[in-house]
UniProtKB/TrEMBL annotation:
<feature type="domain" description="Glycosyltransferase 2-like">
    <location>
        <begin position="20"/>
        <end position="118"/>
    </location>
</feature>
<dbReference type="InterPro" id="IPR029044">
    <property type="entry name" value="Nucleotide-diphossugar_trans"/>
</dbReference>
<dbReference type="InterPro" id="IPR001173">
    <property type="entry name" value="Glyco_trans_2-like"/>
</dbReference>
<protein>
    <submittedName>
        <fullName>Glycosyltransferase</fullName>
    </submittedName>
</protein>
<keyword id="KW-0808">Transferase</keyword>
<dbReference type="Pfam" id="PF00535">
    <property type="entry name" value="Glycos_transf_2"/>
</dbReference>
<dbReference type="GO" id="GO:0016740">
    <property type="term" value="F:transferase activity"/>
</dbReference>
Length: 318
């Protein structure tokens, strides 16, 4: 069994992505690792070349970064560009802010070996831990309305699986989503993806959400984004005044994290409560946390082909 890792990255340093740690966390179980390096001007490519000198498994492919007419689809386009270069039986997709814990390696490899000849299985789902506000607080499993709890991160490399939308999931060439409920994927119960996209201090979080907003400004979704950002003041209270939705980790327990991320965790010099102080100083950050609500709406549109018809029927639109 051969496993190929793959990802894409653009301006990873500028955006504060732990992309080097991310790749390092996956390398031990990969036979090769494909990185599509999109137009960057912050030293991202140079950093990857340094890593490649240490890890010959890594293969770099340069690419441009041209926005398409369909906003957000550039993410899946670059993911598919990476898929086109993999040569393994399977492909392990890991985004630049995700990591795999070494304690899960054996379970992952065993599941892939066991299903190597089961061609009906196109993907493998990971459980997720979403860090929020730092390396020592993450969303409880009950917070599914704000954070996805499972995603496919390993695909069968038989040229029938593609990334779609904002590159969070995969479909087959007939348009069927790769998902456990569809019978074409398996949940890896003993495997977890650690998502560090919001393991940031308040100022860095705000900067990232500002940049990501540019990728999701389609007309319909933009309407919903603006609607939710002004609709319910309880969102502010939920995010900033009640952190009971977060699990806390003892800061001495660095082993909780994948090995490559422990140095980053040890260097954290802020607390989750700093977000409460940052809010009145940077009022605009409220809009981007409310994007969690917007994400729910966006996913509903992406997942349901008849969402528009349901809305029309509800409001008696012709």
């Amino acid at each position: 069994m051969k496993l190929s890792g793959f990802t894409f990255i653009r301006n990873g340093i500028l955006m504060g992505y732990p992309f080097i740690e991310s790749i390092r966390s996956a390398l031990p179980i990969c036979d090769e690792f494909i990185v599509v390096v999109c137009d960057s001007n912050d030293g991202t490519r140079e950093k990857l070349i340094e890593l490649q000198a240490e890890e010959p498994k890594i293969k770099l492919f340069d690419s441009d970064w041209k926005q398409t007419e369909k906003k957000g689809s550039i993410m899946s386009e670059k993911t598919n560009a990476a898929i086109s270069h993999i040569t393994g039986d399977y492909g392990l997709y890991i985004q630049g802010d995700e990591g795999i814990h070494e304690k899960d390696y054996s379970a992952i490899v065993k599941a892939l070996d066991d299903n190597l000849n089961n061609r009906e299985i196109k993907g493998f789902e990971f459980n997720y831990i979403h860090f929020f506000g730092g390396y020592f607080s993450y969303a409880k499993k009950s917070e599914k309305k704000f954070f996805y709890d499972k995603e496919v991160r390993i695909i069968r490399n038989d040229k029938t699986v593609v990334s779609w939308g904002d590159a969070m999931g995969f479909k087959d060439i007939n348009g069927n989503k790769i998902h456990v409920e569809n019978g074409n994927a398996i949940l890896l119960d003993s495997a977890t993806m650690y998502h560090y996209g919001r393991a940031k201090n308040p100022a860095s979080m705000y900067k990232k959400e500002k940049a990501m907003e540019e990728l999701y400004n389609g007309k319909i979704l933009n309407f919903f984004k603006n609607w939710v950002s002004n609709f319910d003041p309880r969102v502010d209270k939920y995010i900033y005044s009640d952190f009971s939705w977060l699990e806390r980790i003892d800061k001495r327990n660095l082993d909780f994290h994948p090995e490559p991320f422990r140095k980053l965790a040890a260097a954290q010099n802020w607390n989750i409560d700093d977000f409460k102080n940052f809010m009145p100083q940077k009022k605009g950050i409220r809009q981007f946390f409310k994007m969690f609500i917007y994400r729910i709406v966006k996913d509903s549109i992406n997942e349901s082909k008849n969402a528009a018809n349901k809305i029309r029927k509800f409001f008696n639109f012709n």
